[in-house]
């Protein structure tokens, strides 16, 4: 393959290693300058044009594209190519053909090209046949082939650890089989017409010629065929044909701009949500506050896009599972450009949903091309109308109460979700599914007069309208079949005196009555400006720092920072607005972002922590709305971050608007929200009642049923230890949480699962799911009961079916194959800890587990298999269909199994 212009990039992803636990190999080609991030996860080798700065990420090794025999004018070194090296021209690609027989040119390649590629994991060598255009006699061709073979071997000697893939080069393949790693060839079943560049089937005689050439090649062979990107079904059929020939398949569009088809097809998880940033800030937009949670639960990644920054260009079908237009205004600026973009996206095959408005005028010339009939409402505003049809997805949190509109809509094709007849006999539909997606308007979506309440069931509506697949949804609420429990404490009130014993500090009470009693993982933060000698309480500092050291020495505590001066208004301070109400009034201090984050972490590491601990987490303060620069600093410092969001649903207000999403993206850096709100919210900002935090139990319950939307997060401040009522409420919350089937984790571990949620990539081969991520998120969820074939799957240690859901437990390797079917192998049904290691073949297995509390483990064991606990005897076994092991201590558990 080759480059056709400067704006394009060649990517080849080659999976020669059996990373997903099967015998198949994934090879992908991609020509755009910005590859979908998922490609870095679903494939092992990624070949890029070194003129683009592609950041290394995921599991991919990076290989650099190099055109050996042709000079491309857009290369930065093209101006230094000497005339005497040029032996011809390729008029189709407007390049010059270069003489590899020339020693000086070879040295030029090594020095100016390959020496700059030392950080790559290998090279993809293109244009190996170009010399045949310029050289006609056999002797010259033979000399050139000798030079080509010699140069490839020279390259391998210079870089013995680099992978090398060549494109074609049939004449010399035999001579470099011990040097290169794979061979690529194009158009076995479907290719491109050389003149028109239209798609066409490959003539039988051409296919026979290629197969004859390939028959003697012992290296892995990559076959690239070409089909329009919409023809997914045919692409998978061609992929299977290529695999049947023993080759590695890649079926792609002619411009190589989409994530094509390998032995699997990529399943996008991102949903593009357009909002109007001029009308509302992203944090406050309904698209974020309401929409993000819905898509996250369904297993999809919300990508919020301010329409004022322009519109995403290029092909988007392979990037996004759907597009949601969620605008505050009926008509946006430059609505004609926006309308053209909408039409283009629909023509490409994207699914679009319009909520509340279209963003362009409700006029026939705009709606008729979308297949929507529009007509004037002849009825009056106060005339009666009746709903003659309504699907059961309405009246979710608020009853359907339609708003009057001068203009009425009805889909020419598709399915109305609501049909209404007005007093004049006109029938219209304010909510419909259309061939390209759908729309929902006029009060059928949200009721906003008092609070934002869902009229439609958003989980069902968006799934219907966008035709979202039933994917194995990455799930951050559950680990090994049990709901995740994590605790984090903000440093506020560390120095507060208790109301019943004035010489005691609240921090001492939390240490003695909570952390040392409830021996689950705790993430504990302090505010430097409150406890340091130069802070607000210098006379108390010696005692406060000593208490902090005692807490951080506990084996169930990890360290976090809650800043230096506890900013209350992050963005105002960042904008230079100094005010005593914006942070703690620390003497002689002017707000500094690095001092708040990096400085406070350094202080805790240096003065408060034992040698074996370092600060892992930064917990946002005040309004928890840091600027993007602040979030970036945490990432650059290697810190995880948390806090923000507004999850506080109670029986009084049991609505989704009070359940926040996982977090918010800030210029490419993700701020992670706490899973629940803290006691400050439940006590009316600490004005009372001080027992109010016990109501978080209602939040735990409402985010468990009917859907498990959140883990259990016990989140509070040290000042909860200062009052009897608040301390008793806190103890009640802990007892409730531990009475549930939970898997306790550290906050840092949960944050990593949230971040991994946004990275996990999915593929589907027609039968099995291919899943790849960083390995931090350990659960996938099907919203249906399903059995998992443990023997044929890879990286799956078990699963649990409950409440018409199936939770699949992953081993943390980061790369998984999910195969449905009877398990036929031992597996974990549920466990209150984490998986540390998992090895299996068709007959044997070994699982290493770790629990932070006395372990409870439920295992399925077929009659044909034996299981052994290798390193523990502190347990009893109960049998009730499953084997249930109850241990008396926490720690590591090693299980071995053999199957006949």
From TrEMBL:
Organism field: Persephonella marina (strain DSM 14350 / EX-H1)
Top-level division of the source organism's lineage: Bacteria
Protein name: Polysaccharide deacetylase
Domain called Glycoside-hydrolase family GH114 TIM-barrel: residue spans: 53-257
InterPro entries (alphabetical): Aldolase_TIM, GH, GH114_TIM-barrel, UCP029570
């Amino acid at each position: 393959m080759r480059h056709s212009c400067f704006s394009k990039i060649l990517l080849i992803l080659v999976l020669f290693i059996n990373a997903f636990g099967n015998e198949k190999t994934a090879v992908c080609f991609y020509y755009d300058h910005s590859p979908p991030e998922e490609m870095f996860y679903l494939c092992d080798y990624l070949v890029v044009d070194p003129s683009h700065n592609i950041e290394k990420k995921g599991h991919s090794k990076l290989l650099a594209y190099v055109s050996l025999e042709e000079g491309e004018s857009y290369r930065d070194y093209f101006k230094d190519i000497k005339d005497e090296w040029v032996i011809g021209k390729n008029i189709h690609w407007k390049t010059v053909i270069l003489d590899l027989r020339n020693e000086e040119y070879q040295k030029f390649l090594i020095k100016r090209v390959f020496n700059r590629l030392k950080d790559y994991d290998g090279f993809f060598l293109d244009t190996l046949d170009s010399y045949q255009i310029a050289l006609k006699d056999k002797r010259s061709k033979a000399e050139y082939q000798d030079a080509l073979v010699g140069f490839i071997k020279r390259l391998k000697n210079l870089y013995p650890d680099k992978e090398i893939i060549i494109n074609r080069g049939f004449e010399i393949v035999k001579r470099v089989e011990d040097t290169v790693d794979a061979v690529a060839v194009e158009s076995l079943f479907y290719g491109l017409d050389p003149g028109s560049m239209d798609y066409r089937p490959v003539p039988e005689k051409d296919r026979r010629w290629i197969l004859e050439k390939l028959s003697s090649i012992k290296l892995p062979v990559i076959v690239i065929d070409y089909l329009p990107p919409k023809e997914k079904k045919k692409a998978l059929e061609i992929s299977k044909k290529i695999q049947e020939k023993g080759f590695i398949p890649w079926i792609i569009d002619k411009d190589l701009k989409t994530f094509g088809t390998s032995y699997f097809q990529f399943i996008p998880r991102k949903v593009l949500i357009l909002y109007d940033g001029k009308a509302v800030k992203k944090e406050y937009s309904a698209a974020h506050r309401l929409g993000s949670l819905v898509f996250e639960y369904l297993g999809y990644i919300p990508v919020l896009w301010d329409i004022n920054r322009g519109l995403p260009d290029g092909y988007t079908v392979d990037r996004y599972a759907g597009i949601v237009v969620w605008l505050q205004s009926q008509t946006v600026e430059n609505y004609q450009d926006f309308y053209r973009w909408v039409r283009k996206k629909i023509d490409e095959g994207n699914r679009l949903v319009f909520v509340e408005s279209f963003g362009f005028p409700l006029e026939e010339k705009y709606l008729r091309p979308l297949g929507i009939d529009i007509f004037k409402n002849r009825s009056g505003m106060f005339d009666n109308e009746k709903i003659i049809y309504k699907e059961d997805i309405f009246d979710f949190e608020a009853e359907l109460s339609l708003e009057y509109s001068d203009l009425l809509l009805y889909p020419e094709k598709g399915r109305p979700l609501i049909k209404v007849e007005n007093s004049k006999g006109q029938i219209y539909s304010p909510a419909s599914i259309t061939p390209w997606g759908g729309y929902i308007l006029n009060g059928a979506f949200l009721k906003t007069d008092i609070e934002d309440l869902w009229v439609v069931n958003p989980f069902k509506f968006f799934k219907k309208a966008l035709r979202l697949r039933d994917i194995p949804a990455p799930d951050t609420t559950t680990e090994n079949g049990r709901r995740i429990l994590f605790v984090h404490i903000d440093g506020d009130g560390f120095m507060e005196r208790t109301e019943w014993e004035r010489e005691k500090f609240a921090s001492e009470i939390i240490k003695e009555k909570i952390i040392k009693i409830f021996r689950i993982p705790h993430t504990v933060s302090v505010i430097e400006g409150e406890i340091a000698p130069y802070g607000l309480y210098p006379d108390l500092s010696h005692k406060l720092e000593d208490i902090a050291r005692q807490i951080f020495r506990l084996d169930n505590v990890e360290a976090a920072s809650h800043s230096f001066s506890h900013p209350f208004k992050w963005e105002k301070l960042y904008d230079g607005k100094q005010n005593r109400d914006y942070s703690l009034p620390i003497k002689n201090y002017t707000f500094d972002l690095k001092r708040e984050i990096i400085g406070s972490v350094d202080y805790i590491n240096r003065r408060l922590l034992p040698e074996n601990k370092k600060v892992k987490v930064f917990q946002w303060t005040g309004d928890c709305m840091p600027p993007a620069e602040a979030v970036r600093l945490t990432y650059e410092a290697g810190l995880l971050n948390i806090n923000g969001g507004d999850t506080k649903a109670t029986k009084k207000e049991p609505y989704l608007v009070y359940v926040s999403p996982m977090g918010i993206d800030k210029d490419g850096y993700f701020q992670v929200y706490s899973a629940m709100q803290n006691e400050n919210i439940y006590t009316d900002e600490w004005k009372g009642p001080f027992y109010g935090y016990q109501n978080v139990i209602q939040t735990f319950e409402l985010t468990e049923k009917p859907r498990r939307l959140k883990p259990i997060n016990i989140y509070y401040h040290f000042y909860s230890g200062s009052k009897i009522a608040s301390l008793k409420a806190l103890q009640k919350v802990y007892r409730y949480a531990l009475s549930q089937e939970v898997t306790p984790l550290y906050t840092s571990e949960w944050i990593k699962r949230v971040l991994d949620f946004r990275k996990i990539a999915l593929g589907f081969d027609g039968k099995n799911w291919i899943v790849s991520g960083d390995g931090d998120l350990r659960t996938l969820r099907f919203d249906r009961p399903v059995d998992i074939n443990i023997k044929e799957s890879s990286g799956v240690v078990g699963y649990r079916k409950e409440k018409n859901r199936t939770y699949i437990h992953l081993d943390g390797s980061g790369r998984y194959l999910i195969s449905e079917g009877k398990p036929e192998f031992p597996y974990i049904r549920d466990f209150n800890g984490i998986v540390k290691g998992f090895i299996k073949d068709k007959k044997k297995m070994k699982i290493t587990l770790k629990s932070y509390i006395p372990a409870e483990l439920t295992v399925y064991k077929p009659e044909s298999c034996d299981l052994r606990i290798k390193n523990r005897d502190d347990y009893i076994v109960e049998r009730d269909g499953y084997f249930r092991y109850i241990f008396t201590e926490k720690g590591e558990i090693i299980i071995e199994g053999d199957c006949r």
